[in-house]
Design goal:
about 210 residues; four-stranded mixed β-sheet; alpha/beta; three-stranded mixed β-sheet; about 15% strand; 7 helices; globular
Length: about 210
């Protein structure tokens, strides 16, 4: 959605069906590009860029906490190799993942940079972005108040601490996403992040084409 708002014609590719995906979608294995890239490249005269979000579970904080890294696929390295080969031919790319993933010279985006919040909850949700384009973050983190954690189960309260936890409505408001299920929300990133990245990619493309 963020890339769409930035001005891109967005086409999604995933090995699994994505019923909530709001744009053109191709079900395919990313590692078999001949099954989907040729048809996209045939759209002559359209500047082209690739965004990849390899599975992040192998590097997530909770996975490391429970020592389950080996139970999740690690595709960051293979994705980097594939996109860097395309970059040698002039293809702009962006790779997104969680802090701790082995991205090269990434920038970090945070919800506090975009004033993403719901009530007294502030979305932080740090995500890193690697690109072969020169991209800078909009500024430093500005953490304040209570962090909005979009993971696990929303709702509930702590009688001991006298606080209420974020509801699913807070997730949707804080993330800027109102069209996804709870599970999809927990695995997503705010459109504000990719809109910011997308505008800088388009700016670079307009200079080079």
């Amino acid at each position: 959605m963020g890339y769409h708002r930035a001005g891109f014609d967005v086409v999604g590719v995933d090995i699994n069906p994505q019923p909530d995906y709001p744009f053109e979608f191709i079900q395919a294995d990313w590692a078999e590009p001949l099954s989907y890239l040729p048809g996209l490249w045939e759209r002559e005269g359209v500047p082209f860029a690739i965004h990849a979000s390899p599975p992040c579970q192998a590097y997530s904080t909770m996975t490391k906490k429970w020592g389950r890294e080996a139970s999740h696929p690690d595709l960051v390295g293979p994705v980097q190799m594939a996109l860097r080969e395309l970059a040698e031919e002039g293809m702009p790319y962006v790779i997104e993942n969680v802090p701790g993933a082995p991205l090269a010279d990434p920038i970090t985006l945070c919800g506090s940079m975009f004033s993403l919040e719901s009530g007294d909850f502030q979305l932080r949700r740090h995500r890193n972005f690697e690109s072969n384009l020169l991209i800078f973050p909009p500024g430093p983190c500005a953490h304040r108040g209570r962090a909005l954690g979009v993971y696990g189960n929303p709702g509930g309260s702590s009688k001991r601490d006298g606080i209420k936890f974020a509801q699913i409505a807070d997730w949707r408001i804080g993330m800027g996403i109102d069209w996804m299920s709870q599970k999809a929300l927990a695995e997503s990133i705010p459109p504000a992040y990719t809109e910011y990245i997308g505008r800088r990619v388009l700016s670079a493309l307009s200079v080079s084409v």
